[in-house]
Amino acid sequence: MTISIWRYSHLVLAIMSSLFILIASVTGAILAFEPISNQIQPYAIDGAEDVSLAKTLSVLQQEYDEVFTLEKDKNDFLIASVITKEGESETFYVHPITGEKLGDLIKKAPIFEFATNLHRSLFLKTTGRVLIGVVSFLLFVIAVTGIKLILKRQGGIKRFFSKVVKENFEQYYHVVIGKYALIPIVIITLTGVFLSLEKFDVLPDSKISHQYPEQEEVEQRLLLRDIPLFQNTRLKNVTHVEFPFSDDIEDYFTVKLNDKELLVNQYTGAIVSHQDISFVALASYWSLILHTGQGTIIWAIVLLLACVAIMFFMYSGFAMTLRRRNSTSKIKNIFKKDEAEYIILIGSETGNTFRSATLFYDALIDVGHSVFMATLNDYSTYDKAKYLVVFAATYGEGEAPISASNFVKLFKSVKQKQPLHYAVVGFGSLMYPEYCKYAIDVDVMFQNKTYFTEHLPLFKINNQSFEAFKTWITQWNAQTHHDLKIKFQKPQINLKKLKEFKVIHKSEPNIDDSFLVQLRPTKKVKFTSGDLLSLYPEVDFIERQYSIGKIEKDILLSIKKHEFGVCSNYFNNLKINEIVNAQVKHNLDFHFPKDAKEVVMIANGTGIAPFLGMINEQRTAIKTHLFWGGRTKDSLRMYETFIDAALYKKTLTSFEVAYSQEQKDKFYVQDLILNHQELISKVLKANGVVMICGSVAMQNRVLETIHTITLKQLNTPLSTFEANDQLKMDCY
Ligand SMILES: Cc1cc2nc3c(=O)[nH]c(=O)nc-3n(C[C@H](O)[C@H](O)[C@H](O)COP(=O)(O)O)c2cc1C
């Protein structure tokens, strides 16, 4: 619930101030170019910072008839105001060592002039300045609530920079960019507020006033270069020097340094008055630098990127809100709650779970069932229902998502009139210690009510995996004797992107109907083991993906033939030298981790293909262990040459196999993992990586086993290793 409050404030403030934030960020981005373009002007002199004030002042005195001021501008260039030997009064950039004129003062370009006015006051003078000040403050609050939301999402400060789960483009980049841009945005907005307050004289007065003690007349005047203060002061500490107005002993040099202002007797060089610059003046100085990027190209670039990030946040934030609204308001039931045989109830916070629920709803409707879909918060009695299916995400720390916030209460008070079959599908993320906790709680609630009978055991889905969802549909079909077809959106295929691959080898299907295909690209194609090969059969142009093992320059695929499988039969009927049109999709998250010390690979069935490539490709000294689960010894045969070659080359350290059908008691790859728990915990503890490829059912069992192992051996939940990017999975 707390998450919703933070998200709500974040959104409401963003909507309220969106137009102004847009103006401020666009103009801010333009203005960030001003310090950059100034800095590339040739007025900065190498080593000038360490030149003594004595040197510069005396050279100016020699070169010009009279000197009024020497000051550093916002770009850290030195400016002198003088009367030249020709009697001209001039102000220009000056060389600190030779005293020569370097150039005329930079004039502000009209675009920067315009952008500055719009940025500061929207051309509305005081009203505009107040508005911008308020918007700056609102943006500060938005950034702070954003940081709070990221902390909640990532699971605390320690995990702030750890991996972000990608559910969709906008959500992913909103969080990823947010992690890096929010701190600069907090700085920009706070300094913006400060600068606004300063303009309205709200801050304590920071003006310096000196006491002027009476000075005794002296006969001799020290040369400028002999005045100790000037000798000991480097230009880097000076901001402004004003020469005495006349030769009167009571007219002084006024020297402004970074942290103080001094009056210096022009005859004796004595410091007549010394005043420290106030905290407010110092804060004002730094606010201006941090807000405008004056004098530093790097910070100006950071400011520019932060402004661009704000514009992206506006787009992605609103896109996410629209998506959330669309998915929740999309429920358009054909049947009323008391007419339907199937009831689908959804618990979702950000709307993604609605996607799977809607696909299931459509599939049931397509085969002629009466279905009613609602949120868990709308839980009620259902007169004709026989099945109740819950799709529930988990939020906070194992808590209910917003559309299920009231469900527990309702469940206690609503009594169903007839017995119902139930199934719960949990949506969560392995990044969180309380993986799918809310769905687990809901499942237990059903178990404890006598009028509910379990139709399917609780099924957990990690990161909205579509492959896992399809596995659940297969289980549903088997249990219910349905043939539900999930209609997923056809990805847009660009036929031009398809490449040609020649068939080099194809094995005959083995005892499990699995076979190997070796393909060679006809032209140069970049790929590595773990990438995916996408095919779009002409029947439906629906994408089918296969995990690639790279053997030399060829692609090795391991494919299981399904009786009516379009693609698997297509592959099985291929002849040597035939051409396959397909596209390589890079799967960066499933590449071999070249910087890990030790790697454990776990696969079942055809999931071994990418690992066959990795163990043969790998040339580093990374210890690599492969665990594989298959049905019988015959199942392994076609992979043996690759495994033996890798063991011989020592690119594979160990290979362990679990056969489910070779002995009386079934033995699966997860049992094998349990038998090697010391190795698993040792690898994870040493920052090693565990890679899993194969069926979703195997993946779930293996993850449960590893979770038990890490809890027992390392007292750490699996989520810690997932957040640390030590788990790489590609399951289907
Ligand atoms: C702040 C936050 C907290 C989360 N907490 C958990 C959690 O405790 N357990 C879990 O399994 N998933 C957790 N998740 C992951 C969500 O359940 C997962 O992203 C889900 O797919 C979101 O579905 P929805 O878009 O329908 O709300 C959390 C996500 C966020 C952003």
UniProtKB/TrEMBL annotation:
- The keyword Flavoprotein is annotated on this UniProt entry: yes
| Entry keyword annotation includes Transmembrane | yes
Cite a GO CC annotation: cytosol
- Give UniProt keywords alphabetically: Flavoprotein, Membrane, Transmembrane, Transmembrane helix
Molecular functions per Gene Ontology: flavin adenine dinucleotide binding; FMN binding; oxidoreductase activity
E.C. designation(s): 1.6.2.4
Q: What class of enzyme is it?
A: oxidoreductase
Gene3D superfamilies linked to this entry? 3.40.50.360, Nucleotide-binding domain of ferredoxin-NADP reductase (FNR) module
Q: Which residues cross the membrane?
A: 12-33, 130-151, 172-197, 297-322
**Ranges for the Flavodoxin-like domain?**
342-481
Protein name from the UniProt record: NADPH--hemoprotein reductase
* Residues annotated as signal peptide: none
